[in-house]
Specification:
By secondary structure, the chain is an alpha/beta fold. It contains 9 helices and 9 strands. Strands 4-7-5-6 form a 4-stranded antiparallel beta sheet, with helices on both faces. The protein has a 3-stranded parallel beta sheet with strand order 2-1-3. A two-stranded antiparallel ribbon has the order 8-9. The two termini are 25 Å apart. The N terminus is likely disordered.
Length: 248
């Protein structure tokens, strides 16, 4: 799930300008129903086709395009919001830092975006609920040798969403079939993600697991749920818990 990142700087007596990457018109209308909507103006940055639906893109080029739009804006930049997954989710902390707007750090967002890095962080704080996992280089001569798990397990790119290029593996034949498909499609997100990773100093264990790497992990069971909320200046507020219904 993408991190909803928005911080509004206080400017008494003046309308605040909120920028949303890949804003849709229906969303603009909904935002106009919020309390205090008369106190702010909502502006879009890039469109959905460019920022979300493009088959091939460069992270740095998209970031450059957004910077140009902000520079050409005749007014203050008070908030920048990401509502989609990568690449927009990583653009926001970079841009907020440049405009001195409070925001999660670039590193903290990348830790959430990079599936292998995220698992390493989880092991540090809640090891008892983290499945066994290992990194896999899909372009190595024999990637199966890198897998330390028993069958069955999942394999997926370290940067993907909506189960893209994710496979349940029950034997070696399925593994190699999956690897062939991963090799043909992983660079679509992996190459731009590598551009984003250049904005932070990577620890050695992540530097060798770039955006074109995979993670294999144990299959987990249980109730699928997610907390919905916000974090502002270190304070976490929960709006509610979203639970995935059990299939009948």
């Amino acid at each position: 799930m993408p991190a909803h990142q928005v911080v509004i700087m206080e400017r008494d007596g003046m309308k605040r300008n909120i920028f949303i990457i890949a804003l849709e018109e229906q969303q603009r209308k909904e935002l106009e129903t919020l309390r205090h909507s008369k106190d702010f103006e909502v502006h879009g940055l890039l469109d959905v086709a460019t920022a979300v639906e493009s088959d091939h893109f460069s992270f740095n080029e998209l970031l450059s395009d957004v910077r140009k739009e902000l520079i050409n804006f005749n007014g203050s930049v008070d908030a920048i919001l990401a509502q989609w997954d990568f690449p927009t989710s990583v653009m926001v902390p970079i841009l907020c830092k440049e405009y001195n707007i409070p925001s999660p750090s670039v590193e903290s967002v990348l830790k959430c975006e990079h599936k292998y890095w995220s698992r390493l962080e989880q092991v540090e704080v809640v090891p008892e609920v983290v499945p066994k996992f290992c990194g896999v280089d899909p372009f190595s001569e024999n990637p199966l040798e890198q897998v330390t798990l028993e069958y069955p397990f999942w394999i997926k790119p370290v940067k993907a969403f909506s189960s893209h290029l994710g496979f349940k593996i029950e034997d070696a034949s399925q593994f190699y079939d999956a690897i062939e498909e991963i090799r043909s499609g992983i660079r679509k997100l992996g190459d731009p993600f590598n551009e984003a990773l250049q904005y932070v100093d990577l620890p050695p264990e992540i530097a060798k697991m770039d955006g074109n790497s995979c993670i294999a992990e144990e299959i987990v069971s249980g109730v699928q749920a997610a907390p919905e909320g916000t974090v502002f200046r270190g304070e976490f507020n929960v709006h509610g818990i979203i639970s995935q219904p059990v299939a009948s």
